[in-house]
Design brief:
single chain; Rossmann fold; seven-stranded parallel beta sheet; two-stranded parallel ribbon; NAD(P)-bd_dom_sf; phosphopantetheine; FAR_NAD-bd; phosphoprotein; Thioester_reductase-like_dom
């Protein structure tokens, strides 16, 4: 008999798709930890976010709670019962704020992971942790020009971004705990291949809005690892259900890094021609556009954006060899998404259209 799954972060951009993918990939119910005081309130919030067929919805069980709180905000009785009910734990919840420092994000991303770990330890469950390739954001600057799934991240490789640092600390603590653990490190999670829907507050969306507002784009050699949100969710679900999943680290991204210059090519064909300027000059234009809200919100996360745009050679992201993950996904029949011009046009329209 297949035991239920506990999933955190099911109302998030990636977590909602992961919930859908897990419903399709395995027959068990999914208990979704959702912030809210009552199951009914949490259910309304969850179903407003999920695009799931009615015939699958009965397998979703809403658990009102909060990863930031001891016992996930549950009573001791409910916490013990949940640990005894589920058979595996998927921790996808996180505060993704690239402008915030470590101290601000630690309650959700570090303490939250500890609280999820406590439940996994109580039930001796396999824990699936969704981290980020951002733990290597500054890899090139610390002597890591190339990264594989076996490369160990460090405080230095995570750079100065609070979010990346919190994910690194959580990874280390979960690894040290000794629970059966699988780590998934997505790269930039881009829009849904069908609708173009994307996380409107992420750094790529901010870059696109700023380029459109300035009618200029940076001339960049930066390359980034990407994966559409639906591909990333399918990949994590498939990788997690393999009998050899425990003890593995996976990088569920497209096989080839994506040149950021191509993003601006797609923006130009979707909207209008863009002037191209060097990254330093583009940054100056951002700082000299005080009336542009698009410029303001990008400058707030410039410490992250400069890595994507390779503001300097040392700031460029390292190269990622994802052969191990791609080999396993091929065995599971998980194909990559088609990230062609129509796809990016759909995504750009969703980002720019009010």
């Amino acid at each position: 008999m297949n035991r239920p799954i506990l999933l955190t972060g099911a109302t998030g951009f990636l977590g909602s798709r992961l919930c859908h993918s897990l419903l399709i990939a395995q027959p068990g119910d999914i208990h979704c930890l959702v912030r809210g005081r009552t199951p009914a309130g949490g259910e309304r919030r969850l179903h407003a976010r999920l695009d799931i067929p009615d015939e699958l919805r009965h397998r979703i069980v809403v658990v009102p709670g909060d990863v930031r709180l001891p016992r996930l905000g549950l009573s001791e009785v409910d916490f013990r019962e949940l640990a005894a009910t589920v058979g595996a734990v998927y921790h996808c919840a996180a505060s993704v704020n690239l402008a915030a420092d470590y101290e601000r994000l630690a309650p959700a991303n570090v303490e939250g992971s500890r609280n999820v770990l406590a439940l996994a330890q109580r039930g001796e469950h396999h824990l699936h942790y969704v981290s980020t390739l951002g733990v290597f954001l500054a890899g090139r600057a610390v002597g890591l020009p190339k990264v594989t799934e076996d490369t160990e991240p460090s405080w230095e490789s995570a750079g100065e971004i609070g979010y990346c640092r919190t994910k690194l600390v959580a990874e280390r603590e979960l690894l040290a705990s000794g629970v059966p653990l699988t780590i998934y490190r997505p790269g930039l999670v881009t829009g849904d291949t069908r609708t173009g829907e994307c996380s409107g507050s992420d750094v790529v969306a901010r870059i696109i809005r700023a380029a459109a507002a300035l009618r200029a784009a940076p001339e960049t050699t930066g390359e980034v690892c990407v994966g559409s949100v639906d591909f990333t969710a399918r990949a994590i679900a498939a990788l997690s259900l393999r009998p050899d999943a425990a003890g593995r680290t996976h990088h569920p991204v497209e096989e080839q890094a994506f040149p950021m210059s191509r993003l601006f090519d797609h923006l130009a064909t979707a909207r209008e021609p863009l002037e191209r300027v060097d990254v330093g000059g583009w940054h100056r234009r951002l700082t000299e556009a005080p009336d542009s809200s698009a410029a303001f919100v990008l400058l707030a996360v410039w410490r992250a954006a400069r890595h994507l745009l390779a503001e300097t050679e040392i700031a460029a992201s390292p190269a990622f060899d994802v052969t191990q993950t791609r080999t396993v996904l091929a065995d599971e029949g998980v194909d990559t998404s088609v990230l062609d011009e129509p796809y990016f046009h759909r995504m750009i329209r969703r980002i720019i259209t009010p």
